[in-house]
Amino acid sequence: MKKAKEHIDETILLKIIENRADENEQLIFNSWIKSSDMHAAEYEQLKKVYHLASIDTLIKQKNWQSVVQKVKNDKAVPDYIELPAEQVPTYKLQMRTYLRYAAMLLVILGVSFLIKTIVFDSQQLTISGKDMKPHEAYVLADGSKVYLNGNSEISFSKKFGIKERKISLKGEAFFEVQRNKKIPFSIITNKTTTEVLGTSFNVYSDLSGKVKVSVVTGVVGFYSDKKENGLKLKAGEQGLFNPELQKIVKDKNVDMNLLAWKTGILYFNETPLTDAFGLLQKQYSHVFVFEPKQESIPTITTTIDNQTLEAVLEELNLLLNTKNVTRNDTIFFESLVK
User: Fold this and answer.
1) Domain of 331?
2) Partner residues linked to 287 by β-bridges
3) What is the value of pTM for the model shown?
4) Do residue 68 and residue 164 come from a single domain?
5) Which is it for the CA torsion 34, 36, 38, 43, positive or negative?
6) 244-276: string of b/e by CB count within 10 Å (b at 16+)?
């Protein structure tokens, strides 16, 4: 076996959990777990999943009945839940597979997942953008790709692609859909449905119920109640759903930075500084504040192409003739002109 700090053979992890590891395997494990705090967290999570699948059947059934009764009575549910035998999924102890689905498995420990996924639909898979690398696509069974923004997530059936291609979305995602005339691809979010045969487009939704569908290639159907009342959107167009009016309107997509969250590229062309700072704040998770008081709002023209925060600050200081000071998560730009 090849010894590496970043990866470890999953059979060693299983032997460690079951106290069957020999001296050499114990040394490999110790080296791996000490190389990163993340490894220690991953190991603890894997142990929880292992023990969850190993607990006594009678105990599981008893605890499950107790949990269901508490949910029905609207009572608090404990953080750790032992599932009945028929609800326990079987998972191969492969690290790459585990890392991809760890978030889904471990939210078994949370009440919201219990209510949403186990009680009502145990055949659903949930993928979160938090568990994916930046600019990494999640590839669905039909070959379609989904890019998830930040805390966004998608849920879909384990049988996705066999008879239907339906996905539920919370947040924002970019889709590159494989064409299939026999099985349309649809996304459900905030009481709206986006339906395609095969194309690429962005779907944005927020907690207020608003939804924005922006088409990059092909044609997309977008509707809120009945399919016949929806809109057909072509490349360069976007549909906006207003939850208060329960209405969808069509508009031209003129936002050059629509996919900045996915590509890491921001375009500014005589952009008012307040607007530019708003986009930079989303991209770099910091608040940007321009301190000099001026009658007119400065504008900037530049392109930020996957640059580090330090490089961006240096460029902004040159453009604005400022120096920056960071306090907590807020970056202040102070003028060098006295």
Assistant:
1) 264-335
2) 330
3) 0.61
4) no
5) negative
6) eeeebeeeebeeebbbbbbeeebebeebebeeb
